[in-house]
Design brief:
Distance between the termini: 14 Å
Number of strands: 6
Low-confidence stretches: none
Shape: globular
Strand order of the largest sheet: 5-4-2-6
Largest sheet: 4 strands, parallel
Mean pLDDT: 82
Number of domains: 1
Radius of gyration: 15 Å
Number of helices: 4
Oligomer: single chain
Order of helices and strands: EHEEHHHEEE
Strand content: 5-15%
Structural class: alpha/beta
Length: about 140
């Protein structure tokens, strides 16, 4: 599960129309692998007019996620979303195997979670690159 070049195009196109709200987290169902290196991500971003020095800095520095090893070319899902959309991410899954931000019972609707559905009201968007199909 993760971000490839096709999904990067989809997300950038969606952001061009919607402009993700950078004041609230963007949800990730599970941790996502990034199947591109920084140069490929940067080239796709340029094609959408979405390029900045801070983006280049985030992608160049890259943080290797040693807990989940969900990186390709040293770009984590969090760095990917921060660089392209300037959003923080909140990830959730049924276990802490991949060190997600929040543990949820994925067999229960968001509004019936133990937190009373608070998570659902705090996300600007949600990306599922292959987590919920396992439930």
């Amino acid at each position: 599960m993760g971000f490839n070049s096709f999904m990067t195009h989809v997300l950038l196109a969606a952001n061009k129309e919607k402009n993700f709200d950078t004041s609230v987290p963007f949800g990730l169902a599970g941790r996502q692998s990034v199947f591109m290196d920084a140069a490929r991500i940067e080239n796709i971003a340029i094609s959408y007019g979405n390029h900045s020095d801070s983006q280049k800095s985030i992608l160049a520095e890259g943080t290797t996620d040693h807990e989940t090893l969900r990186t390709r070319g040293h770009v984590t899902d969090r760095d990917f979303m921060k660089a392209l959309f300037d959003v923080q991410t909140l990830s959730f899954d049924a276990t802490d195997y991949e060190k997600t931000s929040t543990i949820l019972d994925l067999n229960v609707p968001f509004n019936r979670q133990a937190d009373g559905g608070k998570l659902l009201g705090t996300l600007d968007g949600l990306y599922d690159g292959g987590c919920l199909d396992n439930v």
